Amino acid sequence: MPPGQFAFPEADHLTKSRMTPRLLISCVLVLASAARALPRSAGEQATLDSRRIAAQVRSEFLHAWGGYRKYAWGHDDLRPLTKTYHDWYDHTLLLTQVDALDTLILLGLKDEAASTREYVARNLSFDRDTYVQNFEVTIRLLGGLLSAYQLTGDKRLLRLAENLGNRLLPVFDSPTGLPYRFVNLKTGKVRGPETNPAEAGTLLIEFGTLAKLTRRPVFYEKAKRALVEVYKRRSPIGLVGTHINVETGAWTDADSHLSAEIDSYYEYLLKCWLLFGDEDCKRMWLESVAAANKYLADERGDGELWYGHADMNTGKRTATTFGALDAFFPAVLALSGDIERAKRLQASAFRMWTLNGVEPEVLNYRTMQVEYAGYPLRPEIVESTYYLYHFTRDPAYLRMGETMFGDFVKFCKTEEAYAGLKSVVTKEKSDSMQSFLFAETFKYFYLLFAPPKTLRFEKVVFNTEAHPIRRTW
Ligand code: DMJ
Q1: Catalytically annotated residue among 136, 221, 338, 371
Q2: Which residues of 209-219 are buried (b: 16+ CB within 10 A; e: fewer)?
Q3: For residue 110, how many C-alpha atoms fall within 13 Å in the half-sphere facing its CB?
Q4: Count of domains in the chain?
Q5: 255 is catalytic
Q6: Is 292 part of a structural domain of the chain?
Q7: Residue 44 annotated as catalytic
Q8: CB of 465 closer than 6 A to ligand 1?
Q9: How do beta strands 190-191 and 182-184 pair?
């Protein structure tokens, strides 16, 4: 096994059997009569249902993957309604293939995983005269390549990751160390001085892992400095805002929350402590989550808990909105050991889902009115369900997952793939199937129902795009 490689246990082949048809029929008959004779315990029933649902998830994954393969293979993503492809920039970066690769492996889709890996290794090139968004490319491509390298030991994937990391490094050359948002992969020129905590602070799992696997600390140092530079600019009450200028270090939007543009900044403070044993990250996480719990958390009586918006300087409530992206936070709370808050927030997130049978992008939890009705196939609420089930083993989370999966299939499945919704109220579909459907949404649904040995939760840290990274250094 190459250095730095680890082997995940074989993904469970839920639909595969090596039995002869005759033997299979006798076994089915014996099992069926035994099942009639013996009353099933709740635990056994949960296991049987889980296996059945995991197999369904796998089959729905293949349905969506089939659409991508047929109409968009070799491109960034599929437009599922018009059955055409979409590339983010002037040239494909194989976003869906790289993002999906570790899920293909975990689902035990060996042939698909092998052909996709081969395609990526032979065709992915970063030598493009194109400006790319550092954050998106880091979490999807760098994270995907590193995780797939760790799963397969294929050195070509690590070489691609290092090549990409080298090309992204110029983003950090700002007067403050906060990263520019865009970089030209060929020239190294940068753009986009106005960034946000999520884009600046969600890089260390990927760059840090690259540093460890290539033994080039520069990747760790630059990404860690970016995270620290956001933290250093927290307000006196410990909150961060939404927009910050990387050249002046000044906040240009003081709205504080856990939603878009801030969310995964919190996630990486905690996870970089856990993955790298970085004590600075631990300190920053503990202080930051305490401030979030004090000023962003909104207790509504009867134990109901939401997290809303507040001014980063005064702590004054500015909005009572929560949405699909905020639903990552129960997972982070659970991972940090705060199971009680995690459970209460997850109950609210699930309530948000059941209002319309699919969660909206933004909900006003005071009025229960949907403020932005889109649903682009987001994974966060499923991720939190998986974490809570892992930590509590409470079958209520399996039932929650089953409900959400049923709704998800009912409203988002198309003839040959899956599509986001323009509106969770009308259920009108949008012509979009982002790569995180494969990297995250299907992966978390599958892991929720698959046997725990499919992926040993305690051995990995997921990046924000659900790419599992293992500490092999
Ligand atoms: C993903 O790209 C990542 O999970 C990111 O942190 C937030 N948005 C999408 C999924 O919703």
Answers
A1: 136
A2: bbbbbbeeeeb
A3: 5
A4: 1
A5: no
A6: yes
A7: no
A8: yes
A9: antiparallel
Is the CB of 464 within 6 Å of ligand 1? yes
| Residue 298 domain flag | yes
Per annotation, catalytic residue among 229, 380, 383, 440:
380
**Other residues' Cβ atoms within 10 Å of the Cβ of residue 467:** 32
Catalytic pick among 12, 255, 298, 361: 361
CATH number at residue 174: 1.50.10.10
CA dist 469 and 472 (Å) reads 9
Nearest C-alpha to atom 3 of ligand 1 is from which residue?
Answer: 465
205 in any annotated domain: yes
Which residues have a Cβ under 8 Å from the Cβ of 457 and sit 6 or more positions away?
Answer: 390
Ligand 1 atom at shortest distance from the alpha carbon of 140:
2
In a domain, 445, yes or no: no
Coil, strand or helix at 64: helix
136 is catalytic: yes
Per the structure, the complete domain to which residue 295 belongs is given by 126-317
Contact 361 CB / ligand 1 (< 6 Å)? no
Q: pLDDT per position in the chain (473 positions), as tens? A: 333 333 333 333 333 333 333 333 343 333 344 333 444 676 767 776 999 999 999 999 999 999 999 999 999 999 999 999 999 999 999 999 999 999 999 999 999 999 999 999 999 999 999 999 999 999 999 999 999 999 999 999 999 999 999 999 999 999 999 999 999 999 999 999 999 999 999 999 999 999 999 999 999 999 999 999 999 999 999 999 999 999 999 999 999 999 999 999 999 999 999 999 999 999 999 999 999 999 999 999 889 999 999 999 999 999 999 999 999 999 999 999 999 999 999 999 999 999 999 999 999 999 999 999 999 999 999 999 999 999 999 999 999 999 999 999 999 999 999 999 999 999 999 999 999 999 999 999 999 999 999 999 999 999 999 999 999 99
Q: Which of 72, 133, 61 is nearest to 97 (CA)?
A: 72
